[in-house]
Specification:
heterodimer, A: mainly alpha, B: 143 residues, mainly alpha, 6 helices, 76% helix
Amino acid sequence: MFQLHGWEAALFYALAFLTLIMGVFVVTARLAVHSALFLISTLVNIALLFILLRAEFVAGVQILVYVGGVMVLFLFVIMLVQTRAEEESRVKLYTGQSGMAVAVAILLAGSFYFSVMPARDSFAPSDSGAASLIERGDRSGAGAGSVSHDTQQVGEALYRQAALPFEIASLLLLVAMVGAVMLARGTRQEKKEETL
Amino acid sequence: MSVLAVSAIKNLAVVLQNAPKQSWLSRAEPTLLNFMMLSFLLFVIGVAGVLSRRNIIIIFMSIELILNAVNLNLIAFSRYLQLNQDVLRQGRLPGANAMAGPVFTIFIIVVAAAEAAVGLGIVISLFRNRETVEIDEINLLKW
């Protein structure tokens, strides 16, 4: 079965706690810049959780693409659209839908609880030795010097089974890039093009 | 101070590793269910942010939170499949592919990056025309 032991369990709880706290701060922060910094912290924590789940490649992609790319984009846009009123804390933070948001959250929590709790016992670790032996072997082999096969497996799956979606994703990125440039163009640039 | 903290963490790790199989301790060790709970709570925080905040950039960030919650769930299930592959192959899930989780996660990250780029382009264009990023004041399509 899938269960973390020892220091991994302690690390999971620490990371989960930090992730949730930072997630709440993302939603409740007054300034958008603070929100972005808390989101960076959340994303790094999630990358560490990926490493805990032995998905090193995805953790690297998470750090490179999210923290290195998307969040820099967010910070640039915040810099461009930051208003004086927001800094001086004169604006309302929440819409009138906060009550409904809480209601939806409670509803989702209830539905999750009642859908998962009947199956709770099947998640508990079984005492049969075979599965835990595999896991222990995996754990003892994952020392500092050992090589993880995760990247190799993900690469093979990407290029063999998901080759066509992979190419379509590159096309999507191209279209998004052109679209973003077109959308963010100023009126001055548009006029310049018309005169040409 | 930091040496003290490190030694305390090491002691804690040793205690946790050498602890006898007590029922409360082995029950507290995280399984797939705990990862699902974490991912779910992150999802709910994101949903609450999308529904309640006024700043459109923070709404985008909440969407990123939601997508990350989904990613975490996918990776946790992928790890679960990887560890139980032999059992599942013999049982009811013969075609279970543990690598589908990371592949899906990578595609979700790609789509999230494209979405952020286009969305933030729209935000810049909107700010240039309306001088605001508060969604209450952006009601051009509302009638």
